[in-house]
Structure formats: structure tokens, C-alpha cells
Specification:
The structure is a homotetramer of 408-residue chains. Chain A is an alpha+beta fold. Chain A has helices spanning 23-29, 32-35, 57-74, 78-81, 84-96, 105-108, 116-125, 129-137, 141-149, 156-163, 168-181, 190-196, 211-229, 232-254, 258-261, 276-281, 284-295, 300-311, 329-335, 340-343, 378-381, 383-390; strands spanning 3-12, 16-22, 197-200, 203-207, 316-319, 345-349, 367-369, 375-377, 396-401. Chain A folds into 2 domains: 3-228, Hypothetical protein af1432 (Orthogonal Bundle); 232-350 and 396-401, Growth Hormone, Chain: A. In chain A, the strands form 3 sheets. A 4-stranded mixed beta sheet of chain A has the order 3-4-7-8. The first copy, chain A, has a 3-stranded antiparallel beta sheet with strand order 5-9-6. In chain A, α17 (284-295) packs across α18 (300-311).
Chain lengths: 408, 408, 408, 408
């Protein structure tokens, strides 16, 4: 693999510096699909709660790359067992794992026929600037990078680095989102975790002496979910986006002039898979400009919802504990002159900080290396994690709806 | 003044929390002109150097408000000498001082007939949501707020709070920009400065015991200017914006179809002052979408420059120490097939960390209250500041130009 | 209560500043019994693991005072319900709660007939500089301060401030010990907890919106216990102190010349309660000097143990999981030529992060104020805390012993 | 050189971790002379101003070692030009450079015939545990380590690492003292300085791109001197120590029974050089215990001064601007019943943040590597440093004296 002339470094508040000395990494960073990530926020609607959560998937992707780079260079046994090609492949998978994201993250997937993971793989494998950079290095590189992202690389540890339970992706975003929201919930001791990770029998494990750091990391995840990612005000913003996109798709079926009003959304409204070029063009700048066009357009619902999104006239919310709790909401919304199909939104969220065996035995557990050399699943080694795993964690149901009629 | 039902707080990494308990402040924050600041980055092109510098004028404006709020509530003599109306007026001036910014800050002023300060005043005084909120509280409130922003309020201390040499604006942005770039240069001891500020004879002064904190703040300014605000890579991005805007104005004179291609820029191309509605609509989302439209448009220069801006194909730069240093650049640029009128950009920057008497005696000096009760200008009280003030600080001249021809 | 001429402030890394404006607080800080706390480390043997854990009970005591000061000045309902005298009493209790500590914290209590809490009360009530300062303000002040420290103040909330489950003492030491060890385990969001505390029916409660901060605080306690307070290397240091003190008491019974060799320890060797003057004189400087005297004294065991303590020749340790695990240790220690009575030390530690009803209903639970106005015990309101409370948390047994014979 | 079995790491708030993988380093850390540094505070009397400044020379010495370790392992050209033996020698010099310190740093040198640097060299070269550890590795190692500490190593860069103008000693103590005082003055960007250091022609230089970090470091030094190291309250504490030591030496000449009262001070009172064993035994625990003995002894002056030191009854101070300013002080002190010879103390302090050529050309300048490859002295390359170097920085004169007569 070709090295850069000198080590490139980029100042980063989470990692001190991001270090790049592989030419292919540098070229991918400068590719237009990667630069586009500067125009996709990391945290959807969370800036509506934490006003400084304005960071993008660009810096997060660099951070994931940096953690993978340290892992493949520092973890005993792992660093010796991977060759240069495999190390760079893992770093590229870390760097590119979010390249297929559309605007506003999860809400956008409501109109898109493909999920962001599918777009990520398509961008890597199809006719993109990223693809050509990878292919020029080695014809197998695109599919090898993609195989890590789909958790199908034949070397289990390669998959675990990027998307296990103790992976570079989660470790970067917890620290980064904590920093940019200004909360302390997401903090844990990354240095200590990296120092206590080992590879045993081709699997990433953490030494028993690092178990308290891992417990801290599990709790960080738990708190960040409730305090940041699932915050009802952020969900309210995403609810507005979801019902707006639903409205646009409904309009498309009866009046395709919507495609001229907001051409950036057009390729996504038919229900068929849009091209990677269409995704490239729909960054958040385009999407936000689209909203400002809708405010001036003829459909009252799209106008009202777009105005609410741009100007933070969010829906209110109410927690639903029994079936009576939302019974009057539809009629109240109708009284305000709104159509409940778009103006009443139900949401249910739940999360467990850590669930062993959730998907498959190897990739989705955290493994602990005990002093006697045996390897056990985390909830067997940690009383705290066992308690959390067995806990009966409640689901929260909420309904979102407007409480005032806007005059536009 | 009407209070909010309860104190509203917003988590902020710089100040811990932003506290709001005045209804008019809360209403202004929720006005559409203020919410638009979420779509204007604080630091123009600096995210090209420091990839996490993605924060916006929204959070900075809240921060300035918070510092003014603390000043009028905590500084001895000041807090007693201002009435409630004056305190809220000062807080509003802090909150709204940047409301007139266009996209990409300074580069944009190259095409705009009005400066951002002029738009700020117009938004406060004319037909805007902000104006109506202020006017409803007191018919004089809009002009009183504006008078602070233009440094013309009859009470000198009111002007100093927001735009003196030791003002809430600079104190917030140094700390905030340091945090979001991940550098340590902008740090200084805000708590200690706030604790040692006093009001003497209607003027903001700092006690002698706070002089080292002020020296530290002056040095923070110096370092942030060279390391962040005037960084040549950020200037290269702004150079591209400047020559693109120049191209758009030149095109407008010969072919007004440019107005259909990028309607968001149209009101600013004629050279006449655009309305505050036109400014409202030209946020950075609109401007970035405009660039993506220009990439597909017919003019090769606008296409090339827009592509460079969106995809970080920046101009290189060279420091000019004598007149020989740039003599071959024009011909080299021409050899690449580019028009030097748009592809060679000269820039000269300089800064002094602190210049007493730079504008007028009262507002633009920092005053020190000595132990014997006398008040002297800072460079008389601090050996370090005196040395800096007398230093022969050099101007840096650079030329920016492309080194490759892009094939689009 | 008499105010100081101006607010005294002391820079503090945890709280920014410690603020003092009550003369009696200032006088107590300057009393010789309080200044002595500068010579008592906060964390016993932890500096043997975390070399920067060199902070003292002096700064911790100021920190507890500062949190109490903020609580009685900021918490809604509480601040209105306490009069000036009660507020100052609570602040004094926070300031003075650790005044009776001997050297090396817990190990010392092995030779002392009185616990540190008993000495604290005696210093406040008997013939000390502190006592005279308090008494001069109000003859009831000494006993009122003492009643909070013994959790017997008639106003329940006064007791809770200083020694409940969510008290100023724990909140300061978790943050402070995390800072000075350089670990991140003890961090939690103090500001948010302070903002969500209320008083309801004379009891300190935390609003439901602060529940995640409290969960974070509970986990901080859990992690600090295992990673810092109960760290086996720190316990090994304390084991050495414990067996040395046992040796000194045993020697005293057969040869009182030990009293001339180490006069500072003499008053504590008989088994009777020593005076507060004797405690005053036995700070850690005296105790460490005593160890250096014992190194030159005639008893081989005292000499060896003192040498080990001063020069970090700690005992090794072994975890005991079943009764076989320590069976050979006594004979191995004897083979090294050591007396197992002093050279084999068994230790068992366990901890639960939070145990409702552990002592009594009111003081030792954390109470949550739900949105409907009801108050419930924390483990009823938090799934996580409920899981931790029900968890079967293991006790750890270890044996400590030397592995080399020192030649002195 | 023998490596340790595995890398030993110690958590450190300044450097994250201290890493040790050389056996000789590990053995020196565990030697009794090095462990003694846990009983010598880093900052003399500064804990009287900044109550958390309770850290010791033990952690500072580890920090200096860690920076040297990084320098010899990371700096381009330097790392290739030193062999293993030289690298370890440099690390040892960093680790051991403060091993000869007595209690209370500078004040103690008033009674000691030797300076701490001289004791450091004696401990390394004579009959100490440290010496034997070094000698066992290589008979030349003691003198090679000592040669760096005396700035006489034949390789100039080796001297610069530990005691140049941009050395590991200063860089650690500025950051560490800032952290433990809780001030922000000492902060600068260590990572960036380490990244921009190079070796050119056997000399340590800093690249032009690192010049702003170095300016920041110079200012950090300036502010730490005035705000911490030369703070008048800390000086007042040191003044008390100085006049007490003067009293002890005067007493020794007339009555050697002082040697029985405070045997730990005895070897230092005659004016002859005390042995390294005597220095070993006089740690701060012994010295503080000595003060408590003096409080009970017969000499009223020693009693009073010792009481003042232990219980923070400091001298007041007055700035002297002209010869009239202190004229009445002697008579006022006499009126209080005190002997002015011990109770009036004059002090003059001044400092320049950076003085080129102060001692010799190579070692005591900071050198800048310009982009064209030339090397210039810092004040030639930095306008700010040039201004500071030329500044007329004032000397501050103060007189310290008691304002109350203590009744003991």
C-alpha cells in the first residue's frame, strides 16, 4: 500500500489528532462522496434539544477511522495477525461505514426504498469516486471493504472492529456526541479499553482488568440513548420530518408537479430505489432548501409542516401509559383544523444497554478474557451487566401532535 | 418586563447552561430570523482546517446573551445602576448582534451592498418577526437595542458590554471557537475576568488583580487570529467564494438568466441593497444548494469554482515577501487554461492583539482600576501589553491560485 | 450572623471557586484544627495506585462546604424554609464533618478507641479553637452543628444535606477523587443534580427529570469503589498499616519504651480513648516521622513493616474463591522467616452502589418527585437502580502477604 | 538494556499514562530515594494560596521522564541518532533531576550548604540505592546521567531535553502546576510542540509551524510565575521558613541543645555540607514534625515562627515603590514586641518570560527551523517574543512583617 509523503494530521477534540499515512485513506477523504458528509449532521434532530449538537458525519467518520487505525496498530495479537492490506481494509471500512446516509438520518429512510447501509455498499461497489479510488489500489478492495460493513468478512475480528458491541463506531460516537452536546453522559475511558483489548482465537476480547471500563461504556450507551438519541424533543423534530415525507409521497401519487417544486426529493418519491447520484445530490443543504421551497408551494400541509421544521414550531408530546391517554387527541387536532393522518404521530422507544446473543454468538457479544485464560460472555463476568441484562426495561410510548394552528 | 413561567435552561459546553427568564428573550430565540442562525456557520471556511468547527451563529448568539446576562446581574455598581428595562435591552443586543449575517460571513459581503451590521439594524427596526416582538414590549425597544449594536447608546457601559474591547461577543467566541476547533489557544479565565470587572464613572473597568487574566485573554485573541481566523487554508476557501461571487456579478451584467439558475443569489447581484426578506432566504443551505446548481450550469468558471468549494479542491497559496515572489503565477495559471481575473487572488492580513485608542477613547480601550482608585489604560498598567502594543507586527501577504486543471 | 468585609474566594478545580462570606466560616477555616487537615490525605493508601491522589481532607472539606452553601442558597423551597442561622449551621456541618480524622483514615481506627466521627463531635463540643469560635457566635451553635453530623438534627433536610444518600459529602469526594486520581469514573453532572433537587414535605427529593443524572451518580459511586477506594494495592498499603498498629499495641503491653521511641503514637496504644489534643498532634507528618523512627528501633517486626510502608515494599495479594486458595500461604510466610500473625492479612470487601432502606426510611433513601407530585423511592422510579438493587453482588476475599524477605 | 516483562503503566492526569518498559527505570522508581519524593511537595508554599496545590515531586518527576521518553522515541532525527543506552540515560536524567530536593524547596536552601542540584548529583554518584541500581547496569551510567543534569553531556541535544528552554522539566511542571492549582494559566499545546520539534545539526529546534504553540508556552511561563510561583502569599510562607531557619542556625551557635529538640535539622545547622543520608531523612514529614516540636520548645522566636508556619498565621506584605514605603515597619514590629532581625523580611522578584543568550548560545535559546531550512533564534522569528524580550519588565519589591502578636 502506498504511503503519503508525510503523516497528515487533523486536530480533533476527541482524539487529539487524526493521523493519516496511507494514500488511499487520504484520497477517500478528499473524494466528493466523503466531503458530502460535511453536509449531513451526525445527530438528526438533536440540535433542537442540545443546540451545539451541530457536528456532522464527516468528523465522526474520521473518528471511527482513527480508532480502527489504533486498534490494528496497538492491540496485541491482532496487530501481528493482520497484514498491511487487511489493516487498510479495516481502516477504510471504519472511514466509509456511514457514506450512504441521507439527510436527517433515520427520518429520511421513511421515504427511501433503500436503507443507508445499502447505499453505503452501493457507493463502495458501484460507479462512484470512492469506488474508483479503491479499485485502482486493488480490484478486490471495494468488495473486501463492503464485506466488513455487512459483517460478512471471513475474519471475524475484522467485522468486530467496526460493528461489534465494543466497536470503533460506537466508541467514537458516544464520546463525540457527549462532547458536542456538552453533556457528560457519554464519557468513558477509551484509553483503558484500548489498552485492555486483546485478540484470542480470532476474536476481540477485553481483559478482566478492563471490565470496569466496559461497564462504564455500557452505562454511557444507556444514558446517551435516553438523554440524547431518544430525547422526546428530538423525536418531535423527526416526527415532523416523517409526516412531511409521508405527505410528499402521497402528493406524488396524485400530482407529479411536486417533482418540479422540490426536484431534490423527486427520485425518492416513487417508492423505487433511487440512484447513488440522486442520493449524492440530496444532502441536508438541498433538503433544507427544499423545505423553504415547500413553504411557498401550494399544498397547505407540506407548507405547514415545512415551516414547523425550519422554525422549530414542534409538535407537543404526551406519554401514553394506558389506552385512555390519547383518546381525545384526534378530535382536538381536528378542531385545530388539521388532518390527523399527518398531525398525530405515535412513537414507541425502548433500549437495553447490552443484550448478549441478540443477533449471533460471535459478533454481538462482548467477550471477557479472565485471568485463567478462559473467555466468557460479559454478563457472566460482570454483576452489573448481568443485572442490566435481566432488568425489565420499560418501553416508552408517546404521541406527538400540534397544540396551535399556525397562520402562514 | 414579563418573566417566563419558569427559568428555561439550555445545556451549553461553554457556559454550562444558558438561562432565560425574560419572555421577550425567549420569544426572540423562537423567532424565525433567530432560528435561521442555525443555518449560518460561525466560522466561514475554518471547518476546512479544523473539521469540527461546524458550530453556528445560533449557539454563539446564545453565549453572548448569557455573558451579558451575567454581567448586568453580577458586576458591582453596574447591576445597581441599570434598571430592568436597560438590563433586558443589553441582553437583547447581545442576543441579536449577529442576526444580519449572510452565508459564509465575510466572503458574502463582497456581493452584498450592505454589511451584516447594517442588516442587523434593519431586521431589528423594520418589518420582521423580531421587530414585532420587541415593539410589542415597548415601542422604543427596537431602537434602543439597535443603538447598542451601533455603539451609540447614551450609557457608555451599555455599548462596552456588547462591543468594547473586553466584551461579551469576543469573550464568547474565543472560548467557543477554541472548544469547537479542539485547540487550546482561545482559553482564558472567564470566571476571573467576570469577578474582577467593575463599573467606575459609568465605564467598565477591570481591577488590577484581574490584569493577568486580561493579558491571557489578549494573547488568546492573538493566537486565535493567526491559528484559526486567518489560517491560510480557511482564507483559500474564502478566496474561492469571493471570486465566485465576483463571477456571478459579472455574469449578471451580461446575462440575467443567472437569476433563474440561482434565484437565491439573484437579489444580491445587481449591486443594490437587497431586502431583509432576501437575506432571510439566503441561508447557507440555500447558498450551498445554489453552488450545486451552478455545477450543472453553463458557465465554466462558475461551474469550476462551485465544484472546488463544495469538494475541497482549494487554491494553493504562496507567501509573498518581495515583488518577485508572484511574478510567474499569472502565466502559470493561464497555462492551466484559467482566467487570472478569477484564478489569482491576493490577500494581505495583519492583526494586533490590542490597540489602545484605535477608534475612540472610551469604547475601545480596556481600563484598569488600580488599588489607589485611579483608572489607567491597559498598556499603561501591563508591561506585556505595552510591549505588544509597541511591537512592530508584520503584515502577511499571500497569493492564492490553482495548481491543477479540474476535468468536470 | 456577621458577614466578612468582602466575599473571600479560593480557586478550586472542582467548583471553580469556593466562596466565603460568613465570618464564622472564615474563622473556622483559619482555626488550627482545620488547618491540620492539610496534613491528612483524603485517600489513605490510594496514592500507591494513583500517584497523583495526594490531595487532603482540607480541600475536600472546603468542597463539601461549597456544595452545602449552594444547596441552601439555590434549592427551591429549601432556601425559603431555612433561616440564616440554620443555613450557616448546615454549612459549618459540611465544613467540619471530617475534622476528627486521624492519619491514614481507616487503618488508624484500628488502634484508636474512638472513631473519627466521635472525635469530630468531641472537637466541636469540647475545648478546641473550633469550639470557641462557634460558641462565641451562639452558645447553641456547637451542639447544633454536631447534631447534623450525627444525623440527629430535628429538621430532616439538614441531616440529608450533609449525610444522606445524595449529599454534599459524597458529591464532592466522587468528583474530587476522580480529578486527583486522573480517572473519569467519578464524573457525573453535579450542576444538573443541583438544578433538579427540591424540598417536599421537609425532605430533599430530586425531580423525575434529574433521574438520569442520579443514575449516573450511583454508577460513579460503584465504579469509584472498585477502581479506587477498594483497589487491592491501596488495601495492601492499609493492610501494612493495620498490622503495624497491631504490633505497636502488642509491644505496648510488654514494653512501654515504645512510648519514648514514637511518642506521637503513645496516647493511642493503651486502648483507652485519647484526648483531642493527642489526636491534634498525630497528623500524617507525625505518623510518617514515627515510621522513620521505628525503622531505627529495636523491634524487627515494627522496623520491617515501617520500612515497607515508607518505601512501597507492599504485600502481594491473592483472590480467595474457595477455602483451598490460601492454605499454603502461612507456611510460605513462615519459610520467609516472618510471623504469620502480622504477615498474613485477610480482607473481604463488597459494596452495593445503592441500598434503599439500609438504615432508616428517611435519611438513607433517594427520593424522586414524579411529574404528578408523588414522591417515590429511587429504585421504584429507575429500572437501572432497581436492577442494581436486586443484583446479587459478590463479595471479594483476598489474602495479603509478603513474597520476599527484606534485608534491612 | 533489560526490558520489563510487560509495559508498566501509571494513570496520570497530565499525560494519560506514564509508560515504563525499561527495568532500570522501574527499579529507580522503586528505590527509597525516589519514593521519598512522595514526601516533598512540588510547590513549596503555594498550597497556602491554591489549596489544591498539594502534589509532590514524585508525580512531577514521573511526568518529566514521560516527556523525555516520548521525545527520544518520537522526534524525527533525534530518535535515529541516539542509541538505546543514550535514550535510557536521558530518561533517567529526566526521572532523577529533582532527587536532591529538601523540604519546602527553595527556603530550605537557606540553611543547607549545598544546593539541591548538588545533592542530586551526589545521590546519583555516591552510596545510594539509586547509585547501585545505575552502576549495576553499566559502570558509566551514574556519571552519564549526572552529566545531563549538570548540562555537561557531550551531546548537546541530551542536555537540551532535560534542561534547555523548551525542556521536559518546564513543560511538565507548567501543565501539572496548572492542573493542581486549578488555574488555566499554564496550559499550552504539548502535543503540537512535540509534533513540531526536530533535531538539526545536533540541536533541538522547533519548526516554524509550531511557533504559535511556543509563544503560548512562553506566555504560560510568564503567567504561572506571577500568578503562582511568585504569588506574595506563597512568598510570605517561604519568608517564615527562611527566618525560622536563620533563627535555628543562630541558636545552634550559642546552644547546641537545639540538636536534641529537632534532630532532623541538626546536620544542616553547622554550615557544613550534610550527608546524603541526612538529606534522605529530612523529608517534609520530618520537617513538619520538627516544627511541632519547636512549638513546645523553649525559644520564643522559634516557637512563634513554627506556630505561624503550621497554622497559616502568615506575615502581611506591602509593596515598596520608593524608599519611604517601609520606613515605619521596623518600629511597628518592635512595638508588637518582635525582633526585626527575624520579623521584617525584604523580598525582590522579577522575571522575564524568555531571555535569549542568557547563559550560553546553544542550550539556553529556543531555535526555530524556518521553511527554507535556516535556523534562527526564537526572538528573531516571533514578533511577540521579540516584544517581550525587549520589554522593560519591572522588579517587584515587597516587605513582609507580622501585624499581630500571637499569644501562644
Amino acid at each position: 500500500m502506498q504511503k503519503t509523503d508525510e503523516v497528515k494530521v487533523m486536530r480533533d477534540p476527541i482524539h487529539g489528532y487524526i493521523h493519516v499515512d496511507e494514500q488511499v485513506i487520504w484520497d477517500c477523504i478528499n473524494a466528493k462522496e466523503f466531503q458530502r458528509l460535511r453536509r449531513i449532521h451526525q445527530l438528526g434532530g438533536d440540535f433542537q434539544v442540545y443546540h451545539t449538537a451541530e457536528h456532522t458525519r464527516f468528523s465522526h467518520s474520521l473518528g471511527v477511522y482513527e480508532i480502527v487505525r489504533r486498534m490494528v496498530g496497538e492491540i496485541p495479537h491482532l496487530k501481528e495477525s493482520l497484514n498491511e492490506y487487511e489493516k487498510v481494509t479495516a481502516m477504510l471500512a471504519g472511514l466509509l461505514h456511514d457514506i450512504g446516509h441521507g439527510p436527517f438520518s433515520h427520518a429520511f429512510e421513511g421515504i427511501s426504498a433503500l436503507k443507508h447501509e445499502e447505499y453505503t455498499v452501493k457507493i463502495i461497489l458501484e460507479n462512484s469516486e470512492i469506488h474508483h479510488i479503491l479499485e485502482a489500489v486493488d480490484p478486490n478492495l471495494p468488495k473486501d471493504v463492503a464485506s466488513i460493513i455487512t459483517y460478512q468478512h471471513p475474519k471475524e475480528c475484522m467485522n468486530q472492529l467496526v460493528s461489534g458491541q465494543l466497536d470503533a463506531d460506537r466508541m467514537d460516537y458516544l464520546l463525540r456526541d457527549a462532547y458536542f452536546t456538552g453533556t457528560s453522559y457519554g464519557n468513558f475511558d477509551l484509553e483503558r479499553i484500548l489498552r485492555t483489548i486483546r485478540m484470542v482465537d480470532g476474536r476481540i476480547v477485553v481483559k478482566e482488568s478492563g471490565i470496569h471500563s466496559v461497564e462504564d461504556y455500557i452505562m454511557a450507551r444507556y444514558h446517551m440513548y435516553w438523554q440524547v438519541y431518544l430525547h422526546p424533543v428530538a423525536r418531535s423534530y423527526e416526527a415532523l420530518l416523517t409526516v412531511l415525507f409521508k405527505r410528499l409521497k402521497d402528493l406524488y401519487r396524485i400530482d407529479t408537479s411536486i417533482c418540479e417544486a422540490v426536484p431534490m426529493f423527486a427520485p425518492f418519491l416513487s417508492g423505487e430505489a433511487a440512484s447513488i447520484e440522486a442520493l449524492y445530490e440530496l444532502d441536508e443543504a438541498a433538503a433544507l432548501y427544499g423545505l423553504s421551497c415547500l413553504i411557498k408551494w401550494k399544498d397547505d400541509i407540506a407548507k405547514d409542516l415545512s415551516y414547523r421544521i425550519l422554525n422549530r414550531k414542534l409538535f407537543e408530546y404526551k406519554t401514553i401509559r394506558n389506552s385512555e391517554d390519547d383518546k381525545d387527541i384526534i378530535s382536538e387536532v381536528e378542531k385545530l383544523g388539521y388532518n390527523p393522518e399527518y398531525y398525530v404521530f405515535h412513537d414507541a422507544v425502548s433500549q437495553t444497554p447490552y443484550s448478549p446473543y441478540a443477533r449471533n454468538e460471535n459478533g454481538h457479544n462482548i467477550w471477557v478474557l479472565e485471568k485463567d485464560g478462559s473467555v466468557v460472555e460479559l454478563s457472566k463476568a460482570s454483576d452489573i451487566v448481568k443485572a442490566l441484562t435481566n432488568a425489565d426495561l420499560k418501553e416508552e410510548k408517546k404521541v406527538y401532535y400540534p397544540v396551535e394552528h399556525l397562520v402562514l
